[in-house]
From TrEMBL:
This is HCP-like protein. It comes from the Eukaryota. Belongs to the sel-1 family. Pfam families: Sel1 (PF08238).
Length: 252
C-alpha cells in the first residue's frame, strides 16, 4: 500500500489509513491513520472521506470537531458511500455539526438503507418505529429491521425479537422472539443478552431455565445494562443470594 499511496493512489491511501488505525502490519497510530485518510479524502475517495469524518467525529488522530465531521460525511455521502450516508443521517438526527433535522436524517438513512448498509437499515427501521422524520409505521419498521438483521446487525436482531414478542409490525410469535434475541445475544448485543435472560426466566419462547437466565443477565450487566443487576437480584434473592455488582460475584 505504501508505495502506491505515496504515488497518490486514493484507494491505497485509504487502505494504509486502515492499517495504521487498526495496527495491521504496522504499529497502531491514529495520527498517521488520520493523515492518510486526509490524503485519500482530498483525492476524492468516498470511503476515505467517510473515515476522515469519523476521525473528526471521535477525535482520533486529531482534535474532535463535529462540524468538520459533518462536512466530510456530506462529501462522502454525495459521492455514494452508504456508510457516509448513514453517518450524515446520524449527524442530522442528533444535531452533531449541523442543526437537528429529523426529516433530513430520515432521508439520508433511507438512501443508505437502500444502498444495502446494515446500520442504515437499522436506523431507518428506528425512524419508522419511533416516528422520527416520518409517520410512525411498525410494519415498515419491522421490514427494515428484518433486512438489517439478515445483514448481520446485532441490534436489529434484538429489535426484531422485540417486534415478534409484542406483535409490532408482525403477528406475535414468542418462539421467533426468542430465536432473534438468541442471535442478537450471541453477537454481543447487550440488550439482546438482557432480553434473552428475560425469556429464559419467564419461559418466553423457550422453557424456564434459571441458569441460562443468570448467565445472560450477567453478560448484559457486564456490557453495561444496569437493569440486569435488578433482575439478577430478583432471581437470587429467592434463594437468599445477593448479586454483588461491585465485586462481580454472588454473596451467600
Amino acid at each position: 500500500y505504501l508505495k502506491s499511496a505515496r504515488k497518490g493512489d486514493p484507494i491505497d491511501q485509504y487502505n494504509l489509513g486502515i492499517c495504521y488505525q487498526y495496527g495491521r502490519g504496522v504499529t497502531q497510530d491514529y495520527k498517521k491513520a488520520f493523515e492518510w485518510y486526509f490524503k485519500s479524502a482530498n483525492n476524492g475517495y468516498a470511503r476515505g472521506q467517510c473515515n476522515l469524518g469519523l476521525c473528526y467525529y471521535y477525535g482520533r488522530g486529531t482534535v474532535q470537531d463535529y462540524k468538520k465531521a459533518f462536512e466530510w460525511y456530506f462529501k462522502s455521502a454525495n459521492n455514494g458511500c452508504a456508510k457516509g450516508q448513514n453517518n450524515l443521517g446520524y449527524c442530522y438526527q442528533y444535531g452533531k455539526g449541523v442543526n437537528l433535522d429529523y426529516k433530513k436524517a430520515f432521508d439520508w438513512y433511507y438512501i443508505s438503507a437502500n444502498n444495502g448498509y446494515a446500520r442504515g437499515q437499522y436506523n431507518l427501521g428506528y425512524c419508522y418505529y419511533d416516528g422520527k422524520g416520518i409517520s410512525q409505521n411498525y410494519d415498515k419498521a419491522f421490514e427494515w429491521y428484518s433486512r438489517s438483521a439478515n445483514n448481520g446487525h446485532a441490534m436489529s436482531k434484538n429489535n426484531l425479537g422485540y417486534c415478534y414478542e409484542y406483535g409490532e409490525g408482525v403477528v406475535q410469535d414468542y418462539n421467533k422472539a426468542f430465536e432473534w434475541y438468541l442471535k442478537s445475544a450471541i453477537d454481543g448485543c447487550d440488550l439482546g443478552q438482557y432480553n434473552l435472560g428475560y425469556c429464559y426466566y419467564n419461559a418466553i419462547g423457550t422453557r424456564l431455565n434459571i441458569e441460562e437466565a443468570i448467565f445472560w443477565y450477567k453478560k448484559a450487566l457486564d456490557n453495561g445494562i444496569e437493569g440486569a443487576y435488578i433482575e439478577l437480584n430478583k432471581i437470587l434473592s429467592r434463594n437468599n443470594f445477593i448479586y454483588n455488582n461491585n465485586k462481580n460475584k454472588v454473596n451467600y
